[in-house]
Write a structure and sequence with these properties.
The protein has one domain. 12% of the residues lie in helices and 40% in strands. It contains two helices and ten strands, in the order ββββαββββββα. Strands 1, 2, 3, 4, 5, 6, 7, 8, 9 and 10 form a ten-stranded antiparallel sheet that branches. A hairpin with a 6-residue loop joins strand 8 and strand 9. The longest helix has 18 residues.
Length: 198
């Protein structure tokens, strides 16, 4: 399994495995250096959680059927975004402001066999809580930049501002598929694997 794609994307979730459509959401990634902006339409999502403060939200602009059926990254075009919440804000106990940090953000951008991994962080204003049927929230004033890429990947963003509204169903299967593809894309970007195999 693997994935390929071009734009940096987030969400208008269509749940993996169970095809239930959730509230429309979106993502905006605006370059701080080059004037480029990505506002992809995302169609696949799923989240899983470990405890009341820890959850991983996955979203992609690649249809779930294609993600699940991909043999190689070269079979796919799009992106996969992972938002890892490591701290659930609590009024009076934790900072609740955009300058604080409660999530890490990683984006695998895939383009014709080339891969770029962007990473950074931000603050998630949660909607619901881990363990709910659906979970997400909004991120404002987050930031990402290219961390690693294959030699032929063209970075059109540089340092970028990240904003999103995300809602994903609790879906272990969808999250596992996107996690697998994301991890494979990361290995490809680091030169530890190829786009056409593990």
């Amino acid at each position: 399994m693997s994935s390929t794609g071009l734009v940096l994307a987030l969400l208008l979730p269509l749940a993996a495995g169970c095809s239930r459509v959730l509230t429309s959401s979106g993502v905006r990634v605006r370059s701080s250096e080059r004037g480029a902006m990505l506002e992809p339409r995302v169609v696949s999502s799923g989240y899983r959680w470990q405890d009341a403060s820890t959850a991983d939200i996955y979203v992609s602009d690649i249809p779930m059927e294609r993600l699940a059926g991909a043999d190689t990254l070269a079979d796919l075009s799009g992106s996969i975004v992972r938002i890892h919440m490591f701290l659930r804000p609590r009024p009076g106990r934790t900072p609740i402001e955009t300058t604080a940090s409660s999530v890490t953000i990683h984006c695998a951008v895939l383009a014709r066999g080339e891969v770029g991994i962007y990473g950074g962080g931000g603050f998630l204003f949660p909607s619901g809580k881990p363990g709910d049927d659906s979970f997400g929230g909004s991120i404002e004033d987050g930031s990402v930049r290219l961390l690693v890429s294959t030699p032929g990947f063209l970075d059109q963003l540089g340092a970028a501002e990240f904003a999103a509204g995300v809602v994903a169903p609790e879906d272990e299967s969808a999250a596992a598929i996107m996690e697998h593809l994301f991890e494979h894309a990361s290995r490809v970007a680091r030169g530890e694997a190829t786009a056409t195999g593990g």
